Every structure is written in structure tokens, then in C-alpha cells.
Amino acid sequence: MSLRFLTGSGDRSRRPGLDRREWLRIGTLAGLGLGAGSLSPQARRLAANAIPNSDRPAGFGRAKSVIVLCASGGQSQLDTWDPKPDAPDSIRGEFASIATSVPGLRLCEHMPRLARLANQFTIIRSMSHDDLDHGSALYLSLTGQFHPRKSSNFPPRPEDAPALGAILQRIRPTQNFPYSAIHLNGPVLIPDVPSPGQYGGFLGRSYEPLTVGDVTEPSMILDGLDPLPELPLVRQSARTTLLDAFDRTRRQFEGDRSTMAMGELYRQAHSLLASPRCRQAFDLSQEPDPVRNRYGRFRSGQACLLARRLVEAEVPLITVFLNQSIRGQDTASGVTDAYGWDTHNDIFDSMKNHLLPRFDISFSALLEDLQQRRLLDSTLVICLGEFGRAPRVAPEPNFAGSSPGRKHWAAVYSIVMAGAGVGRGQLVGSSDRIGAYPETTPFSPGDVAATLFSSLGINPANHFSDATDRPIAIATGKPIQEIYG
């Protein structure tokens, strides 16, 4: 539905399906660190002190915003963050490694800009889990929870776990923007249907992040955000009054989740329409050409630039899908914007000529821009995928391509974190000599989710409730303390 036709009251306190008893419960939970964004100043102070200072994990509350860069498809750790220059050719692969700004640390030769910025971020080289297919593994990365069917590619379902952004909208909705979480360059496809894990799941549609597609097409993000000339504010207000009248009648249908969710979607859209500040946050044309060029005039680059603008607009959680499809190259060979990180055969050609150059440009531009604007200290940046690639280079008969590649591999892989108190120029964890298994304590996607919430000042050990009052853990892991040095 076009945003031109969506209007609502914008009253964030009246959420569908929440009666007085539930609001009292949420108020109680707020004293434990939940729901702080919508509380009074006194309640906010109580929420902030839910974890005694002496018990707070490192990095707790350091971030005002979090940016997640999702390299969906399975980014090869051996050909990016954890090269093995002394391993045999069949393990090392075709790429050389280069020195970085951190003594002794080497990265892939095709990431020269990120190599120069290595003193700005921390690499975690001991990520590990046991899910080996894209749908369920992306679900794990985006929700922090294992899918009921590991190593599967099920479509999204209403009973799914909610995306991290949906949980954030549930427990601490922001007052500074209509949405607490936004997905850019989405939805991510596996390879041509949406992956589970990026929606509201059992919380319902009213909690799911706003999804924006190709940001290089202005019509994708700006059409419908500018008010129509024939719809002045007085007419918008009249429509809001009419919608409120419908709301009063609609209360008899409070048991119908879809009806109630639609009302919240209307309100969120009206908030976008009614706020010039919110609309302008999406307007990339306000950026100077040199800045847009630095990020790269392609989908992932401009999405990273929009993520920085949304940080400035005080959006708490922004997820950038660096590639819309895990493997779009099957249907659009040679079209770089279509390529995903699911590189089976032809891995080195795909990475060298399509994936790594744009990744190096956009990720480095984001880090530099956040640092120059003094936003990095209050913004946690996480770059991850759903898993890595196998140590051994070998042809795969079930995939197209004329040269060998690497299979899915979840036993060990690498991610990167920066900002919001994260140590600079650090390595956390290590893999064995061929990049196959962790040599040190492994970390899980649940730990990453816990780190994200803790960074935002939310105790990940707390719970929220679903529609049946069942308590659900915010995160199943623990914050990764080692990244803070």
C-alpha cells in the first residue's frame, strides 16, 4: 500500500492489543530495564539503574544507535577477515593477504581501504554454530534464536521468532522516529523468496521493522513521503479524526490481531507523512556528490549512506542488507548489484570482481564518515553474515561455474564490530591453522544479539511477553565482553 494513502493518529502510546493490565505489567518491567523509551523521566532513571553499576557489562548503554551490515549468503572468512597465508593452496585460495594499520594483522588483498582502517574496529574470529542452510541460519543471525528446523529454507511464518528490531519496538519504542528499526536494501531473499527472521513473527506486523528496497531509486523511498499538494494539513487532520472514530468502533475487534496491526501500520505511516524531519532523513539528494560518490553509487553503498542519515535522525537500529539476494548472480550474471555472498563455484572471480570491491568501498566509507561526524563513539557497527565458507577449495557439481569454490561452513567464521566503546585494532578469538574450527572460546549469534541490546542499554537477560503472556527471553546469549578490551 502506498504511503500516500496511509494516515493515522501518530499516538505511540495506544498500541493494538494492549489493555490496561498489560500496560501496568510493561510499566513494572520498565523498572527492570524494559520499555524505557516510552517512560517518564523518573521511570527512565529507574530503568537505567536496573543493572547496578558494579554489575553492568562493559559497553552497556554506550550506543544510541546500532547499524548491522548483513553480508547474506555466507562471507568466506578465509578470503576476508581470517586469511591463512601459510596454509596449502587448496586451503589458502587464490588471494594474497596484506598488512594493515595494526601490526601483525593481515587481511585479504582486495580490502585495502578496510586494511588501513583496521585500527578502528575489532574482528571476532571464533564465531560458531551448527546451522548450515541460508534460511534458518539467516533467521538465527536476525533473531538470535535457532529456527525450529535447523538447516532448512522455510518461508516466513506467523509463529516465527521476531526480528531483533521487532523486539526493540516491543520493549523500547523510540519517541524520536516512527520506527525503532529499519531494514535497508531488503527484504533479503534466499535466493528469490524472502528469508524468515526479518519480520514481526509472533509479535505481529505492527512491530516489524520498516523495510526499504533499492535506495538508488528515489521513488522507492521518497514517493509517498512528500504530502500531496491537494492534501493540506487540515485535510490530513480531518482524516486522522475520521480514523480515530473508526478506532473507537474497532475496539470490539481487539481479538483480531490483523485488524489491530493494520491500525498501528496506519499510525506509523502517518507519522512519517506528518514529520518533515522524518521525510528528509530518507532524502539522499541532500548529500553532496563527493559524499555519495565515496560510499559508491550502487545499492549497498547508498544504503550505507542512508544508514548514517538514519543514525543522525536517531533511529535506534538500522540493518543494511549488503546484497538483496544471497545468490542473485544465478539469474543476473555479470550484474554486480545482484551478486550475493553464496559463492560456491567461481568464488574467487565473484569476490574479486564483484563483491569485495564494493564491500571495501562502502564499509570503509561508513566507518570514516561516522568517525568524522563524531557519531562512532555512540554508534555500534556490526558486520556479519549467517556463516562462513569451508576451508577446502573444491568444485561443486550441483552449482554453475567453471572454477572451484567453497561450501557452507558454520563451525567457524568471522564478524566485525566497531564504535560505542568497542576496542580498536583488536582481534578476539582465533580459528585453527586452516580456518575450520575455533581455537578459542566460540561465540554465537545469540551472544551478538545480547551485545546489541546491552549496547543500547537494555538488559538482554530480561524478558518480554507474547500475545499469550508467555515470557520470552530478549536474548539467549551473553554480551561479548572481550570486544571492549
Sheet with the most strands: spatial strand order: 6-5-7-1-8-11-4-12
Number of strands: 14
Q: Terminal Cα separation, in Å?
A: 47 Å
**How many strands, which pairing sense, and closed or not: the largest β-sheet?**
8 strands, mixed
Give the C-alpha Rg: 22 Å
- Using the coordinates above, name the CATH class: Alpha Beta
What's the number of helices? 14
Strand content of the residues, in percent? Answer: 5-15%
Given as residue ranges, the uncertain stretches (5+ residues, pLDDT < 50) are 1-46
Give an account of the 3D structure.
Helix content is about 30%, strand content about 10%. By secondary structure, it is α/β, with parallel strands linked by helices. The protein has one domain (about 30-225, about 280-485): Alkaline Phosphatase, subunit A. It has an 8-stranded mixed sheet, sandwiched between helices. The termini are far apart.
